[in-house]
TrEMBL record:
One of its GO terms (molecular function) is oxidoreductase activity. Keywords: Signal. This is ER-bound oxygenase mpaB/mpaB'/Rubber oxygenase catalytic domain-containing protein. Residues 1-20 form the signal peptide. InterPro entries: MPAB/Lcp_cat_dom.
Amino acid sequence: MFVGGVRALLLQSLHPLAMAAVAAHSGFRGDPWGRLQRTSTFLAVTTFGTADDARHAVERVRAIHERVRGTTREGEPYHAADPHLLGWVHAAEVDSFLRAHQRYGARPLDAAGCDGYLEDTARVAAALGVTDPPRDRAERLAAYRPELRATPEALATARFILYRPPLPLAARPPYAALTAAAVASLPPWARGPLRLPRLPLVEDLAVPLAGHAVTRTIRWATAAARPASAGS
């Protein structure tokens, strides 16, 4: 999820309207981990919570989206509740999570499992206001490519996420391994505008090894932290 989340943020930043909304209305620079926690809580509630809890979480997010509106530097209006813009954010998110899981997950999904995941996430996306969210692995990102470009805000966001995270020194090597895995999984058409050149030898050999090592360590640590079940 971490690798997929970083990849999704980098992809999403390439839409000028989405990036303008984040830059003007989000506090991710001042409190990136708090924002990450809120996003993770939303995903957890809408995935594992009751139907009522999921509905309330969706209603809260829709209310926030309704208030987020403005104009870009070029004077183009944006509104976070725009179904087309929500569709881009959702498509980039599920594509990133699925690709990261298939590459670094403990149990990659078969074809039916991939489509099942997209079908499940489509229910939440539709509730948020996305029109016709992806329900199978048919390519959806390509339709948005004519709208994408790297604005100054997108480049600043990429630098912040990849090179200037507010982390202690001890946490930076594993963080670098996770972000390198995220960057390596981006399509070439996204890496170019974000000025993230490909390093074939490093990305083909070192990055997968490091990515698997860190994700396995995280899985081990979270499993060890779970309380023992009754009677075990």
